[in-house]
Design a protein that fits this description.
By secondary structure, this protein is of the alpha+beta class. A hairpin with a 5-residue loop joins strand 8 and strand 9. It has 2 domains: 95 residues, no CATH class; 125 residues, no CATH class.
Amino acid sequence: RCYELFKIQYPDTWQGIFLKFEESTQYTEARRTFGQWQQMFNRLTKWFTQSFAALSKAHGIEVAFIMAGSIVNQDASLGYAYTTPGAENFFVEHCHADTDTIIGHLKAHIYNWSSLACMAEMLDKGKSDIKGKAVEQNDAGHEQTTFPHKLSESHGQTWASGKLFPWKQLPQKLGQNALVCINWPDAVLFPGQECSSRSKPKGISDLTISECTQIVAAIRDTGPHRLHFKSAPNSKLDILTSKIPVIHGAPPLHDSKSLKAKRVFYDGKIDHEG
């Protein structure tokens, strides 16, 4: 009864509405088997082809499009290319590729992008392990703590072991607790400093994998330039009034533009007079 009333209500468009509804379920439905996924892919290529052919005929809109599956070990057979009459030979003349070749190029691009996305995810996880958990393991499997744990364990600063490390306010946190950071790596973004290459700085998340590695290496260093924190209760007033720096950078690298080490003060001032 409802079906008949629906057709009466939409006498000219009811078939198109049902078709669109069926297609929408295909878009949102998770794939169950490869056969079902292939059937959906074939239906979509047919629908796109018919739609573009109609646009070309009715409105003179010409189209060249390619489709391919993105699952590397499963979608090898899913590829399709189509051009309307006005765009015929587009791929051959401008991409120097026939239909099979252009589909192959698209698949190579998709698979490469997927691989890079997986690598980026793994690198982000690695950065999270260094920044968030602040724990690494050496070759023997022993844990090596990074600077938040150094502050928490060696100096009793519980705020450093929280889920959100106060990167932007670290100079102020150190000063308020009469702590001084010694030998922060010269080529690494300093705490409280914003990344100039980003329109929206993200604090500690702006550190690169290379910079995180340098921080870990500086903490492990057993030489005179080891990254560490020093308690300076007798100098707290001088720290809070920015008479002396709260973060002392390590000696500049050989290719640095500065001859002296970088220093950060409680009030945010930075100089290269270390």
